[in-house]
Amino acid sequence: MWGKMVQIAPSLLAADFAHLAKEVQKVSKAGADYIHWDVMDGHFVPNLTFGVPVIQTLRSYTDVSFDVHLMVERPDKLIDDCALAGADQITVHLEVGQTENLISHIQSLHKKVGLSIKPKTKVADLIPFLPMIDWVLLMSVEPGFGGQSFIPKTLEKIVALKDLIGRKKIKIAVDGGINPITAEACRLAGADVLIAGSSIFHQKNYAQAIQALKGGR
Ligand code: DX5
Ligand code: ZN
C-alpha cells in the first residue's frame, strides 16, 4: 500500500431518518472518519433537511467528529447554535458571500472551518480565503439532493485546488455522487476526504461500503 489513506465522511442525508441514532452508531462502528450533516434551508437549495436540534440530540451517540455542511442563505444565524450542538467543523458556502466574517465567526468558536463551492464556482475564487480555512468542500453535484451523478469536471478542480493549496494544511473534501468508481478517480486526483450518502447507507454492510470507497476490498 502506498500513498495516504483517504478519509470517509458518511452523509446522513441518505440514512434512515426513522432510526437516526442507530444509523449514527452503526456508521461510526463501521469506520466513519467524520459524520456529515447536510443542513438545508429551502432557499439556498430547494430542499429541507434537519436543523441544529437534531444534530444536538445525536451528539451523544458517537465520538466521531461532526462536520456540518450549511447549505443555507444565512449561515451566520446558525453558526453559534451549531457549535453549541457539538459540531467539530462548520462548512459554509462561498456563494452566500460575507465569507471573511463567516470564517472569523467559526474561528472565534474554536471550530474547524470548511469552505464549499458549487460545481459551477471556480477554485480560483477560493484563493483569498485559503490561508484562513481547514478544508475545502468541492461539490461534485448541485447541492440539495442525494443520489445524483458525479460531475466529472470535479476531477480537474481537485487537481487545480491541490496545486493552489501547495504546502498549506488544508484538506480537500469531495461531496456528491461518490461510489467506489468515482471514489477511485477522486483519490487519484488528490482528494483527502470523500463524503458519501447513498453508497454507504443504501448498502447492507456499512463497513464494507466504507472500505470500498477507500479502495480496499
Ligand atoms: C448534497 C449533499 C451531499 C449528499 C451526497 O446536497 O451535500 O452530502 O448527501 O449524497 P450522495 O452520496 O447520495 O450523492
Ligand atoms: Zn454535503
Key descriptive features of the protein:
217 residues, alpha/beta, TIM Barrel, eight-stranded parallel sheet, 8 helices, 8 strands, 32% helix, globular, binds D-xylitol-5-phosphate, binds zinc ion
Q: What's the layout of helices and strands?
A:
Layout: E1 7-10, H1 20-29, E2 34-40, H2 52-58, E3 65-71, H3 79-85, E4 89-93, H4 99-108, E5 112-117, E6 135-139, H5 154-165, E7 171-175, H6 180-189, E8 193-196, H7 198-201, H8 206-214
Parallel strand pairs: 1-8, 2-3, 3-4, 4-5, 5-6, 6-7, 7-8
Helix pairs in contact: 2-3, 6-8
The structure holds D-xylitol-5-phosphate (DX5) and zinc ion.
Residues 11, 13-14, 36, 38, 69, 141, 143-144, 146-148, 175-178, 195-199 line the site of D-xylitol-5-phosphate (DX5).
Characterization of this structure:
By secondary structure, the chain is an alpha/beta fold. It has a single domain (7-214), classed as TIM Barrel. It contains eight helices and eight strands. The protein has helices at 20-29, 52-58, 79-85, 99-108, 154-165, 180-189, 198-201, 206-214, and strands spanning 7-10, 34-40, 65-71, 89-93, 112-117, 135-139, 171-175, 193-196. Strands 1-8-7-6-5-4-3-2 form an eight-stranded parallel sheet. Helix 6 links the parallel strand 7 and strand 8. Helix 2 packs parallel to helix 3 (79-85) and helix 6 (180-189) runs parallel beside helix 8 (206-214). The longest helix is centred in the C-terminal third of the chain and has 12 residues, at 154-165. The radius of gyration is 16 Å and the shape is globular. The two termini are 13 Å apart. Zinc ion binds at residues 11, 36, 38, 69, 175, 195. Residues 11, 13-14, 36, 38, 69, 141, 143-144, 146-148, 175-178, 195-199 line the site of D-xylitol-5-phosphate (DX5).
